[in-house]
Amino acid sequence: MLGGSSIFGWDVLEESLTIPRLIENMDERLEVINAGVLGYSSAQELGLYIEDIYELRPDIVICYNFWNDIFFSLQAGEEYLGVNNIYNGIEILLREYYIADTRPIPGLMLFARNLFFKTNIGKGRQVYLKDVNILHELDRVNNELKTDFSNPRIAASIKLYQKNMKIFSNILSADGIKFIVILQPELNRKKKITKQEWDSQRMSLPNYQEYFAPIYAHALPVAEKYFEQENILYLNMNEEEEFISNETTLFIDFVHNNTEGNKIIASIIYRYLLDNKLI
After folding, report:
1. How many CB atoms lie within 10 A of CB 212?
2. What does the DSSP 8-state code read for residue 184?
3. Which of 58, 94, 101, 257 has a CA that sits 20 to 30 A from residue 201's CA?
4. How many beta carbons lie within 10 A of that of residue 264, not counting itself?
5. What integer is the mean pLDDT of 86-113?
């Protein structure tokens, strides 16, 4: 299973409670690889499959995605569509910390460079630090886009996502590997949102429900129509009654699920695999 933080297991206390492991534990015949990476979008998932997963020769590949593609791609220029670049700055910092801890001379050079940038080119250093500030970037998405469906980046994000899923489908089909896309559920598609879910959403990103939720709702049927035209198997979790009609708390924010949400999602996916004779 490929995807972002929801597949990886965001805020899940035990690995056994992630969606891939829950599915695996439903059937002793299954071995499910959790290939979720925090923040990943479709282009990164495609790259991960080609570089690392392909050699494992899986029987089925499930991509659990779409939300990251739309949300994160809208914050940057078109060169970043399909790729979440928010964590690049964090990765750079972690690499620098590792070098500083393990290699004294290169570490000293990094320290001197950073000191120079901070004291003599302060403006450039501040811009760099701002790029690492995730909440700042997400807030900028809201302020720029609001619910303007005419924004060209929305159409471009959806189009590139469709292209990446088509490439996935072609590659896997050529190898006789089954392919399924799961359109990631989003809080505001639930029919009844609990107070805890409302509060968590507002605390995570105050303007999200007003600004971005309608954009995702607008994009979902576009993706569905494309999958139907291209004969790509898909499951839109935002339309599954067992999930969206559930009146209990299933989300910890606007897109990540709690343990109960993961269990319901895993059950729906497993049943879909059985009903479509994929396992």
Report:
1. 25
2. P
3. 94
4. 20
5. 58
CA distance 133 to 140: 11
Query: Please, what is the end-to-end C-alpha distance for the chain in angstroms?
Result: 15
CA dihedral 208, 263, 235, 38 (to 10 degrees): 50
3-state secondary structure of 3: strand
pLDDT of 121 over the 80 cut: no
Residue with tokens 């109960």: 260
Residues 155-167: tens digit of each pLDDT: 888 999 999 999 9
Bridge partners of residue 63, in order along the sequence: 2, 181
Q: Which single residue is written with the structure tokens 């799961």? A: 182
Instruction: Place 102 in a pLDDT band, splitting at 50, 70 and 90.
Output: low
Identify residue 87 by its one-letter amino acid code: Y
Q: What is the pLDDT of residue 217?
A: 93
Buried-exposed string 229-254: b where 16+ CB fall within 10 A, e elsewhere: eeebbbbbbbebeebbebeebbbbbb
Q: Is the pLDDT of residue 80 over 60?
A: no
Q: Residues 215-271: pLDDT tens digits?
A: 899 999 999 999 999 999 999 999 999 999 999 999 999 999 999 999 999 999 999
The radius of gyration computed from the CA coordinates of the chain, to the nearest angstrom, equals: 20
Per the CB < 8 A criterion, the answer to whether 278 and 178 are in contact is yes
Contact 144, 27 (CB under 8 A): no
Residue recorded with tokens 């959790």:
34
3-state secondary structure of 35: strand
Residue 194 and residue 260 in contact, taking contact as beta carbons nearer than 8 Å: no
SS3 11: coil
Q: 80 is written with which tokens?
A: 């970043």
Question: What are the tokens at 4?
Answer: 């972002």
Distance of CA 115 to the CA centre of its chain: 35
Coil, strand, or helix at residue 194? coil
CA atoms of 185 and 170, how far apart (whole Å)? 25
- The span from the CA of 20 to the CA of 122, in Å, is 45
